Amino acid sequence: MSTKAMTSQKEKKYKSLKRKTAVGNTIIYIILTIMAIIWVAPFCAIVLESFRTETTMQVGYVIPKQWGLDNYRTLLTETKFLKWYTNTLTIALIVSVIQTFMVLCMSYTLSRMRFTGRKFLMNLMLIFGMFPGFLGMIILYKILSGMGLTGAGSVPGLILVYTASSAMGYYVSKGFFDTIPKSLDEAARVDGATRAQVLVKITFPMAKPIIIYTVLTAFMGPWGDFMFAKYIAHNTTEGMNVAVGLQNLISTPEMLAAHYTQFTAAGILVAIPITLLFMNLQKYYVEGVTGGAVKG
User: How far, rounded to the nearest angstrom, does the alpha carbon of residue 138 sit from its chain's CA centroid?
Assistant: First the structure.
């Protein structure tokens, strides 16, 4: 076979492969576009509903006939939404700080130090972590009730519960710390640095992705919790977080008809902090997950 014929045959194979790739990519893009539309459509509907002012009830159309900010204004002035929002934000911020500190300290200890009972402690925390949290709801309520941390005082009670066992969630963070060379720690110790100095000045700067990942996960837990928060608040408005408060806002058919559009407006306001956090910190979140999954 001549060189020209071989070249022509290769060009045909290349064009055929290129055509197949283009067709495959087009199909994938179409599927992804349809999935994106299906995923985004409900959120767009909620946004549109929040600006509908002709009626507060559920309707059979999406695009409002009358637009306005009445739902947001009514939500902020005529309901306890600001109180619920403040409660939730306070809980989430405090828990994210305490939980991050405890998780990172536990992860660093288990990653860098070797001591008697280390394996047993890791296995024990792993086993305890398999039990669903709601199994202890009754006894936790009894304890918190005896301390005056239910009802109107449920905010500090929820902070206490959310942070009490946070160190048990060390798995991903420990895996990330395992990827950081121990030789850096040893070199710093030789130069006279203490364990705390090594952790703060060497390990933490290199562990920025896992720190942000831990902060995000610690913040998201209290922000979206409903079951335990409702159980502890016990229908006391002053102690409700935003999820429980909004459920209470539409708890009956009559209240749903009167507050549905306000409920959608509240959903938008609740989604804003999480959306902004993920948009700005998504890169570090992914790095933290993938880095922590390398080793166990």
Answer: 26
Confidence of residue 293 (pLDDT cuts 50, 70, 90): very low
* Residue 139 token pair: 């006894």
d(CA 279, CA 124): 36
User: CB under 8 Å to 226, separation ≥6 — which residues?
Assistant: 243, 244, 247
List pLDDT tens digits, range 99-109: 998 888 888 88
Best-predicted range by mean pLDDT among 82-86, 185-189, 201-205?
A: 82-86
**Fold (topology level) of 80-295:** MetI-like fold (1.10.3720)
Taking the domains of the chain in order of start, what are their residue ranges? Answer: 80-295
The owner of tokens 């309520």 is: 141
CA–CA dist 180, 104 (Å, integer)? 14
Please give the model's pTM, rounded to 2 decimal places.
0.80
Assigned token pair, 229: 């928060």
